[in-house]
Design brief:
Elements lengths: L1 E7 L2 H17 L2 E7 L5 H9 L6 E2 L7 H17 L5 E5 L3 H12 L4 E4 L14 H11 L2 E4 L2 H9 L7 E3 L3 H13 L10 E5 L8 H16 L5 E4 L4 H11 L5 E4 L4 H9 L1 E6 L2 H6 L7 E3 L7 H6 L2 E3 L4 H13 L1 H8 L10 H22 L1
Parallel strand pairs: 1-2, 1-4, 2-3, 4-5, 5-6, 6-7, 8-9, 8-11, 9-10, 11-12, 12-13
Helix pairs in contact: 1-2, 1-7, 1-15, 3-4, 4-5, 8-9, 8-13
Bound molecules: ligand UD9.
The site of the ligand CC(=O)N[C@@H]1[C@@H](OP(=O)(O)OP(=O)(O)OC[C@H]2O[C@@H](n3ccc(=O)[nH]c3=O)[C@H](O)[C@@H]2O)O[C@H](CO)[C@@H](O)[C@@H]1O has 28 residues, from helix 1, helix 10 and helix 11.
Length: 370
């Protein structure tokens, strides 16, 4: 049995690691241990529950600032690593927890496997700090599981050896399949459906977030029959302006963050998604829901190229224009809805589990021969 330490910190990491955890639990050769860093509190708890995960270790979040969080997280993860005989550390994505988990593994000479490797904008400020974090993880990881061929190519161009890179699809699609299967989810709405909005990216805080909210207010007032559903991130930098600008509109429904089951139902029932989230760009095409990205760039150009998403930026006028274009042009809408999903088919976790089995068995053989 190989002991594998899975490190999660935020809502999306839990979602994207959960199907892999269940796959590893069932595989017969690995013993996965889940460590939650506490980077997200309530939003993480919601997700762990949704996916039936009881972490083996949950760290207390040390202080409010990222610096205190990182230092205390590093100390505690290092202790956990020192106390076990770990075959592998598994991290996902591009958060502070991802990076600290990988860094601790690197210092302890435990191989690091990076899920969702190779996403890039090559602009260290956008998204900040995620672009820097994921590039740093790529420097110290031993196994790079890229969701798409493009992500794999980015890693090759950064001189990561070919045999360390595998294209697996994104595990978020597995998470969607898992929840749909378990709860027999299906579309509940007749007709057009609602406009689903999320916004939380650090680069959008301040004036961009206000512009986004004013755009939503414009569209909601022009189309009183259109219901807008906006689950609002708990960070007050986000929730305060959102509530101030959109709070009084009768067809705009602001809610606390949804658990994963509610979110996938909301996605199934949506007409259009407006978001700066990474995960939603990957998920919306699974259900054939067109998506407008509230950013000027994306590390997921596959969605734009496939035709299931468009970049709408963060200017009020442009966002309104792009929504109106889909509202009035059924052909353009249909083309986006039928573009398919370039991020996977729900088999990424099985693929990663198989690849790890081979890679770790190879390592064992090497060790025995040595
Ligand atoms: C720069 C960037 O793109 N970074 C990404 C970032 O994640 P993100 O931008 O995708 O973050 P969020 O938008 O918070 O999460 C999205 C998920 O949450 C679900 N959701 C959302 C609202 C809600 O009320 N209820 C929910 O259930 C939703 O369906 C979806 O699955 O970090 C990840 C981890 O390292 C990376 O993978 C990933 O690159």
């Amino acid at each position: 049995m190989q002991d594998i330490l899975i490190v999660s910190g935020t809502r999306p990491e839990i979602i994207k690691l959960a199907p892999l955890y269940h796959c590893l639990c069932a595989c017969g050769w690995a013993r996965p241990h889940w460590l939650h860093t506490g980077q997200h509190g309530e939003m993480a708890r919601q997700m762990l529950e949704c996916f039936d995960i009881l972490p083996d270790v949950t760290l207390e979040r040390g202080g409010d600032g990222l610096c205190e969080f990182s230092t205390s997280c590093r100390t505690h993860i290092d202790r956990v690593m020192a106390d076990g005989s770990w075959a592998l550390v598994l991290v996902q994505g591009d958060t502070e927890s991802t990076f600290i988990g990988a860094l601790c593994g690197y210092y302890r000479h435990i191989p690091v496997a990076h899920i969702e490797a190779g996403l890039r904008t090559y602009d260290l400020q956008r998204p900040f700090p995620e672009e820097g974090l994921r590039q740093m993880v790529s420097r110290i990881a031993s196994f790079h599981f890229a969701p798409t061929a493009r992500a794999a190519q980015a890693l090759r161009e950064e001189a990561i050896p070919e045999e360390r890179i595998s294209v697996t699809g994104n595990t978020v699609i597995d998470a969607q399949h898992w929840i749909v299967r378990r709860h027999q989810l299906r579309r509940r709405r007749e007709g057009r459906g609602h406009l689903l909005v999320t916004a939380h990216r650090r680069e959008n805080w301040g004036s961009d977030l206000r512009e986004i909210c004013y755009a939503i207010a414009d569209v909601a007032s022009r189309h009183p029959e259109l219901e807008v559903l906006f689950p609002v991130h708990l960070n007050p930098v986000v929730s305060q302006p959102v509530h101030a600008i959109l709070g009084g509109l009768s067809n705009v429904h602001l809610s606390p963050p949804l658990d994963y089951l509610q979110m996938q139902q909301a996605l199934l029932d949506a007409w259009l998604v407006l978001t700066d989230s990474g995960g939603l760009q990957e998920e919306a095409p699974t259900f054939g829901v067109p998506l407008l990205v509230l950013r000027t760039e994306t590390e997921r150009p596959e969605a734009i190229e496939a035709g299931c998403a468009r970049l709408a930026g963060t200017r009020r006028g442009t966002i309104v224009q792009q929504i109106e274009a889909l509202w009035s042009n059924a052909d353009a809408y249909r083309a986006m809805a039928h573009a398919g999903n370039p991020f996977g088919n729900g088999t990424a976790s099985v693929r990663v589990t198989d690849l790890l089995k081979g890679a770790l068995a190879g390592k064992e053989r090497l060790r025995e021969a040595g």
